[in-house]
TrEMBL record:
InterPro entries: SNase_OB-fold_sf, Staphylococal_nuclease_OB-fold. Pfam families: SNase. Residues 39-166 form the TNase-like domain. One of its GO terms (cellular component) is cytoplasm. This is Micrococcal nuclease homolog. The lineage of its organism: Bacteria, Pseudomonadati, Pseudomonadota, Betaproteobacteria, Burkholderiales. Signal peptide: none annotated. It comes from Serpentinimonas maccroryi. Residues 159-184 are annotated as: Disordered. Keywords: Endonuclease, Hydrolase, Nuclease. It comes from the Bacteria.
Amino acid sequence: MNAVRAAALTPLPRNWLWLWLAAGLALGSAPLRAQAISSPLHGRVIAVADGDSVTVLDAQQRRHRVRLLGIDAPEQAQPWGAEAGAHLKALVLQHEVQVDFAKTDRHGRLVGTLRLQGQDVNLQLLRAGLAWHYKRYAEEQKWLERWRYARAERRAQRERRGLWADPAPTPPWEYRQQQRAKPR
């Protein structure tokens, strides 16, 4: 039997952990579900709507509304909402940024990772304790990015940074649901 044929007939390793590790590493740089990846958007942040939404002006003077992927900041009327918006504004307003995006949301905003000088701004908001890791949409993140975001949120909680100083902060998705349920 030649070496090529013998290699083809070699049984799979019994230790599946190695297969999971290899699969995890392969997926570490790719989203878990197929997405049409677009070229990054480069431009200047001209407005900050709140703690997780900005407007970017590109080189052709077109405005792009951007929703930050993987995080959900408190709404403006919530505790820490104004602080999250002010923090994001201080970080990026009038700065050149890159937006790595893969989709638009139902409001027509690009959904992506905002980068300032190569640094992940979305992650910085989590580290500051000014946003939640938005696990509802975590499958849209690259595996390694999802892991970093979850770790940053846990650390901010443990160190009681920002909104985690509150013993029971209300996540923005619950706050929005409560607001919709109120009689008008």
